[in-house]
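FW: tagging you since you asked about this chain on Friday. Here's the raw sequence from the shared folder, copied in full. Didn't touch anything.
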Amino acid sequence: MKRLAPIMLSILTLVSAVACSTGNNSSTAPKETVRSVSDESRIFKKSELPYPDKLTSISDILYNDTSDRVYIIGSDTKGKTLCCTADSSFSLYKYAELDIENKTDSSAVFAVSDDKLYAVITDVRYAEDGSFESAEYSYTLITYDNDFSKLSSVSIENADDSISGQASELYIGKGGGLVFSVGMEYIVIDESGKITDSVSFDKDEEHAIAELVKSGRYAYYYSDNAAYYGVKPDNSIVRLVDFANSGLSNIREIASIADNEFICVSDNKLYRLSERDSAELANITELTLAAAGETDSIQNTIADFNSGSNLYRVNVKNYLDGHEYSIEGFEAAAHDLEMDIISGKTPDLVWLDMNETEKLASKGAFADLYEFMDKDTKFKRDAFLPNYLQAAEIDGHLYSITPSFVIRTMGVKSKYVSGDSWTFEQFKEAYSSRPDGMELFEQGNNRSGVFLMLSNGCANFIDLKSHTCSFDSDSFIDILEFSAQFPDLNSYDGERRSCRRDTALFSEMYFQSFRDINVQKQCVFGDDMTLIGAPSENGQGSSMILSNQFSIMSDSDNKEGAWEFIKLFLADECYSGNPNGIPVTENGLKKVMDAALEKPYYIDTTCGNTKVYMDETTTDFYSGERINVTPMTADEQKKYEQFVRSITRISSGNTELSISRIIDEETAYFFAGDHSAEQCAEMIQNCVSIMLSEQS
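HL: got it, structure written out here
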């Protein structure tokens, strides 16, 4: 069941990139909070190499520059671990069995030196209850000679089980021996398996590995979904391959075999990456896409555009590089981008959250997207949900667009309400007449929690389009006074309640698809559900929450190319499967609506591309009960379609940190009894008004 807690939406962009294995001296992405990255990447083209015919999958690629030897390690059809070797011309493949048993409770990591291959094997023995907490780990070091004959196999000492966890990477040590990582620790061993040193690290010290491993130009390599990096001995990070910029996607194993030449696996094929000649790029116009946050969700589509277009290529400039992975870091990155735009360093288009796009739109930074829609043959205005366009436009102009949105609302069992919206007075009446023993929400029934949920984190009282706020309104004062009746955090018992069992009246809900609506209805309520939204005077208690949006810069010389790029994210194919949100196009909406009418399925390509349906189950958070989910009915589909189309309000779901601090401080005075609700509202109104006016 996809349920997003409020805090998740406020830090939606803070999710770290998913790291993948990266081959020679490779590592998962650094867990440090600051990444200062210099960019030495080129534009690469890929040429397919013969896939090792004895391997069904590849787990590691290593390269020995001394012997110009490539090691490709994987499994054959019988599950045996093989090492396939070739020189960098890949003219002849040789295979050797490594005599490593392939088991579900065993794993291996590899490293290569001048004349030896090393493997550290992790074996896991689980307790009878199968829990990870009580699992026992043992480690074995295997050393092979140049012809893969086993020289030795020794147990790595693990006195008092001081090492616990799966070995994830293996390196050649700077002073001899080997270094492998387990959890938040680097373990240094000699070739007899004796531990000679161990170094613990936290998010600020992981690059201590550079002090331990043997290195040439780079101490080690790592990759994330966006790029392949080298870390120098001085801990500086260099971006070597930007995947999307080169039109590369689904990169798995990757290793450097020479300056600006790499070997990688993508979609179970083996490729060489080599730098594209400048003549090949001479007739291709580069579009600069500026971002100030994570770009994982758009990386593959950028790669598809770059690999498929003969006219344009998108180059991503992410201002988050060099900033902390924190709310403060994201705000600093957005500020740097704003300053560049103001100073005339204008990209062609941007990918920003709602707060930033509305700020810049008010300064005349963006082109009106309606101009492109009106000239387009497919994506005209009537191709989009009219309520989305109504909510997104500013004074009749559309300055930004998002491929999809999340819906924020409040759900309640239909028997407890009448109508599909309500005022705050009606809301309070429903609460006061609730059955005995029933709380307001499933969780968060304390002053701060209720206040944040009813005010949508206070985003409902800030209008970034006009740079105004309404904290001195009766609505805000009502929320303050209503929230004050609940216990403070220190007195709150923290017990979870259940709408399904009638111990909670409302559930704050976030929907990403029609299937999501259906699953939550059956799991959270198990009964008829009314999506009534938060109390409001205009009936707009539900809202669209946008994460990031595309905008085209008004000063760009490549507006048409930028529009062609944006359209790729609006294509029907992007809404197939399980899109991350409610589509903004009519065709996309129909796809996600129809998907909820049948069980989840996969396509069996071995039987004529037939659908194979799967049972859908979910778990009740509060009882642990497994619930079988039945598909949405046609009547429910119509009902929820009407609900989606009725929403004409956009909320960012995220309040700027500086504003949040003001609100937190002033509401704390109110909840402590030092200020009245009116005084609190006035103080917030005055302070936030000044901040917003400075931004205009």
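FW: Residues 1-34 have pLDDT under 50 and may be disordered.
HL: agreed, and Residues 677-695 form the longest helix (19 residues).
FW: great, closing this out.
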